[in-house]
Design a protein that fits this description.
seven-stranded mixed β-sheet; 20 strands
């Protein structure tokens, strides 16, 4: 990864970097620290956030709800994640890269495949953790982490700007995380807002299961005049359980693409998983993969050629690979 990433960072310095840690839904977000706030005593280039970690082993309760990755992550624990952090810092020319460590653990959702306890226990107890209220309730019961902060939910009726939902320290002022709730707890979007300057606010929408575009939280957030959408992280597959579609798949992703108008659509939470356990059996849980082309054809058939949108700038980031969001 080193030589290739080094050249890509050199070609687009001061841009966020996305690294896939498990080939599915565990990501390392590396945000360039704005020069105006960079400490003169530190040569660290990025603020590194590892989110929704599941780095090997089964998730859930074996006899009830049990999920397994089909590909084993090579980045398997907290020490290995720090190793990836150091690789990225080294590629960016940090002479002190060997001393760099992760800045924040983020828990954007509270199911076991998004906050895998055996994985998270491999991290130092002192590392700051940012979590939704549901995830915070679970992780606090582990009595492992010492610094736990709750993220906030955007209220479309409150009339407050997105900046009012900053969770506070340890998140820096120039980085914000706010959840946009949807019609079901599975169907949400987390808005990660990177503000490298007072007039630039770039949003990454993380929506692993999709969010309906008619949701007031999403629509109101997108009316903010001072933001632009850098990327959406969204899958292509339809997941069905108990006769209900739980992920919105390529059709939902295209709808979000048309509404939010991101520069990139990064595939996320789309890897093959093994489902076992009583609930999975009774619910007939199954994934159905679709392609961008299939989604575009359906969109064209439903909306007509005159309203047929542009092809998304769709990006697949393989496990252990990084992508620079330019």
């Amino acid at each position: 990864m080193n030589d290739s990433l080094q050249s890509r960072i050199a070609a687009a310095p001061h841009r966020p970097v996305l690294t896939s840690l498990n080939g599915d839904n565990s990501w390392l977000y590396s945000f360039p620290i704005p020069p105006s706030v960079r400490s003169p005593s530190s040569s660290k280039v990025y603020y590194h956030v590892a989110a929704d970690l599941w780095l090997g082993g089964p998730a859930g309760i074996p006899w009830l709800v049990h999920l397994a990755l089909t590909a084993t992550p090579t980045v398997a624990d907290g020490k290995a994640v720090d190793g990836v952090v150091q690789e990225i810092e080294r590629a960016a020319g940090n002479p002190e890269a060997d001393a760099a460590t992760l800045d924040l653990l983020a828990l954007f959702f509270h199911y076991a495949d998004h906050m895998h306890e055996p994985t998270l226990r491999t991290f130092d107890a002192k590392i700051p953790v940012l979590a939704t209220s549901e995830a915070a309730a679970t992780v606090s019961g582990w009595k492992h982490f010492e610094n736990l902060t709750m993220s906030r939910d955007f209220d479309p009726l409150a009339g407050q700007p997105w900046t009012a939902y900053h969770p506070g320290a340890p998140l820096p002022d120039w980085l914000n995380v706010v959840r946009l709730k949807g019609h079901h707890e599975l169907n949400f979007a987390t808005a990660i807002v990177y503000s490298p300057s007072p007039t630039v606010n770039e949003v990454i929408f993380y929506s692993p299961h999709g969010i309906r575009t008619d949701q007031a939280s999403l629509q109101t957030f997108l009316t903010s005049p001072d933001i632009s959408t850098l990327a959406i992280l969204h899958g292509l597959k339809d997941n069905w359980a108990f006769g209900t579609q739980t992920t919105l798949g390529v059709v939902g992703g295209l709808a979000l693409q048309r509404l939010a108008r991101p520069r990139y659509w990064v595939k996320s939470h789309d890897a093959p998983l093994v489902y076992t356990g009583l609930v999975m059996f009774l619910g007939r849980v199954k994934d159905y993969w679709k392609t961008i082309d299939e989604g575009l054809e359906k969109e064209k058939a439903e909306k007509g050629a005159e309203s047929f949108g542009d092809r998304p700038n769709f990006v697949e980031v393989e496990m252990n690979q990084s992508f620079v969001l330019v």
